[in-house]
Design brief:
Chains A, B: This is LacI family DNA-binding transcriptional regulator. Chains A, B: It holds the Pfam family Peripla_BP_3. Chains A, B: Residues 8-62 form the HTH lacI-type domain. Chains A, B: Keywords: DNA-binding, Transcription, Transcription regulation. The structure is a homodimer. Helices cover 43% and strands 17% of the residues of chain A. Chain A is an alpha/beta fold. The N and C termini of chain A lie far apart (75 Å). In chain A, strand 6, helix 9 (196-211) and strand 7 form a beta-alpha-beta unit. The longest helix of chain A has 16 residues, at 78-93. Chain A has 3 domains: 10-53, no CATH class; 67-165 and 299-326, 3-Layer(aba) Sandwich (Rossmann fold), CATH 3.40.50.2300; 167-297, 3-Layer(aba) Sandwich (Rossmann fold). In chain A, strands 2-1-3-4-5-11 form a 6-stranded parallel sheet, sandwiched between helices. A 6-stranded mixed sheet of chain A has the order 7-6-8-9-10-12, sandwiched between helices. The first copy, chain A, binds a DNA duplex through residues 9-11, 19-23, 25-26, 29, 31-35, 38, 53-54, 56-63.
Chain lengths: 342, 342
DNA sequence: TTGAAAGCGCTAACAT
DNA sequence: ATGTTAGCGCTTTCAA
């Protein structure tokens, strides 16, 4: 695998340019006084030697690594992948790297991750916490003065910025729409209620039913991890009951896809046999026949805003925490049918 | 945002346990000789103070940060998202973090990324290089002795491990199947030929045509960045010609989805008007009606193998580079129709 | 305008 | 079994 060549340090550059390390540093980072000629000589020397500053040493000196941690539940969820993409772009402009770490929706793993990342002296965190309640690790991080921005999922007790959407409203609107289309037995496919969005979307579901005087039936609610495979199973369970729902509301796009696949495998057609609305839009939602009605989130705005909030904190902004909540939008397509009561 | 509390260092722990820093380090990292009693006292002190080793200082000392860089073109591509997920899991077991950095399929940006990440003294890289040719940055990284594992895309001149699939064979088999189904005007929707997989998949397309004595027509090849939006445009261009193709082969799942959407928007039905095969399987491929015929990759094996290769290198394995190429599999579903020559 | 020197937190060779 | 000390590469205060 080739010969290792020694790494060029500031000392080498300084020697090459025949100045002290201090002067070399000044010339390369353009601060303090340096003679024009000297500066040039140092820069040339650095160039010639292929000098590349050791960011670890700089970090040890300054106390922080120019890295932001993004802690999420699942990078395979297109929603988070999009956010990650946007965050990385914004941070790149600030010469920071993004370290994406997955909790796999496991609170213990999320805590371990924090333990490990905190030791890295990372500058700040953007987090979609796995649990709405169990957040000692986040509190400690905030208490130690490390900026945290919550994304997609808030934590009430935490004094930090957050960017979420109107989960309750979006879910309520969706279920409302199903009810107004004549449905009474409306299934809910959600992930664990430990998760903030799940709680709020459940609340929206519950509130919509209540507003129409429909009693909530636990047998119509199916809980599963948010993957296509698990959602398939959960959907099959839901629709294998003696009195299955006539409509289904799913809380994210992976689950919507799982539900679609499951219903098809059971020979149930959408929207003839089952009406469907999913939270979170997705690429193929308009390709399927019928097209899927969804609650869309303003996904393009979430990542950039969160990045900006974090950057503001990094540059010392001391305002009280901002908690932004974006509205959602019901996009009516063709997966809901009118149901005439029997 | 709360009071900053001072960070606990080894020195504090040592003082608390009334031992030297060396002893404290030994007790905490369990190496060298430490008295049982002393060790216990140190561990208790660390616990009490909430000591968390400074990984940056450790890295400066040891010369490396326990971080692996994953440089890819687009985290929003489900293929890469899956790989990232698997890599992270494997590396976590080795107490390493994964830093995902996106080149956005831009070679210049990829180079800048390397420049920046090399300065971080990252332990190794897993890379899906943007260009099959322009790889001075990779060569330099390898030359400096930093382990690199190529994934999805190889670079011939580079002395390092790689994990790819049989792109030429997979593409050839797909196009073969189209030809055997009676198609002669077969469109190709691919990303830029700078990209390794694109080159190989194009070769497969070309070879299949050639084997059947069909002349390649440039007007049937459409190049676009690999996003759903760009693929939609490119597909529309392809099928707006006076003599459009009767079949289409797309080189990845995002493009397949774009093609699907575009064809639908043009009122062309699959497979009646256009037959379709996509490289890379995807969740909804079996939901659409008809289900989409695809060339599937053994995606579950790629990430773990690459991770293992890198880990082996990190632990000093000196074998000559391994270049693994997985076979692909044509999964015949319903998006190809027999075409009777007119 | 430049240089000398201290020190960030940690590890490990060496000394005791 | 434990302590002393040097030094990883860099920045920055202080002195010249």
């Amino acid at each position: 695998m080739g010969l290792k060549r020694p790494v060029v340090t500031l000392k080498d550059v300084a020697a090459e340019a025949r100045v002290s390390r201090a002067t070399a540093a000044r010339a390369l980072n353009s601060y303090g006084y340096v003679g024009d000629e000297t500066a040039l000589r140092v820069q040339e020397a650095a160039e010639r030697l292929g000098y590349r500053g050791n960011r670890v040493a700089q970090a040890l000196r300054r106390g922080q690594l120019p890295i932001i941690g993004f802690v999420l539940g699942d990078i395979q969820n297109p929603f988070f992948a999009r956010i990650a993409h946007d965050l990385e772009g914004e941070l790149r402009k600030r010469r920071h790297n993004l370290l994406i770490a997955s909790s796999e929706e496991d609170t213990a793993q999320e805590k371990a991750l924090f333990e490990s990342l905190r030791g890295l002296s990372i500058r700040g965190f953007i987090v979609a916490p796995t649990s709405a309640d169990d957040n000692a690790h986040l509190e400690e991080t905030v208490r130690e003065g490390v900026p945290v921005v919550l994304i997609d999922r808030a934590v009430k007790s935490l004094e930090c910025d957050s960017v979420v959407v109107d989960n309750e409203g979006g879910a309520r609107q969706a279920v409302d729409y199903l009810i107004n289309s004549g449905h009474r037995r409306i299934g809910l496919l959600q992930d664990e209620t430990r998760i903030f969005t799940s709680q709020e979307r459940l609340a929206g579901y519950r509130n919509a039913l209540e507003a129409h005087g429909i009693e909530l039936e636990n047998s119509l609610i199916s809980v599963s991890p948010s993957t296509v495979e698990h959602a398939i199973e959960a959907t099959i369970r839901l629709f294998s009951q003696r009195k299955p729902p006539t409509a289904l509301f799913t809380v994210d796009s992976l689950m919507t896809q799982g539900a679609l696949l499951a219903l098809r495998s059971m020979g149930l057609s959408v929207p003839k046999d089952v009406s469907l609305i999913g939270f979170d839009d997705f690429n193929l939602a308009t390709f399927t026949d019928p097209q899927i009605t969804v609650v869309a989130q303003p996904i393009a705005e979430i990542g950039p805003l969160a990045a900006q909030m974090l950057i503001d904190r990094l540059s010392g902004k001391k305002d009280p925490p901002r908690n932004v909540r974006f509205p959602t939008r019901l996009i009516i397509r063709g997966s809901v049918s009118r149901r005439v009561e029997v």
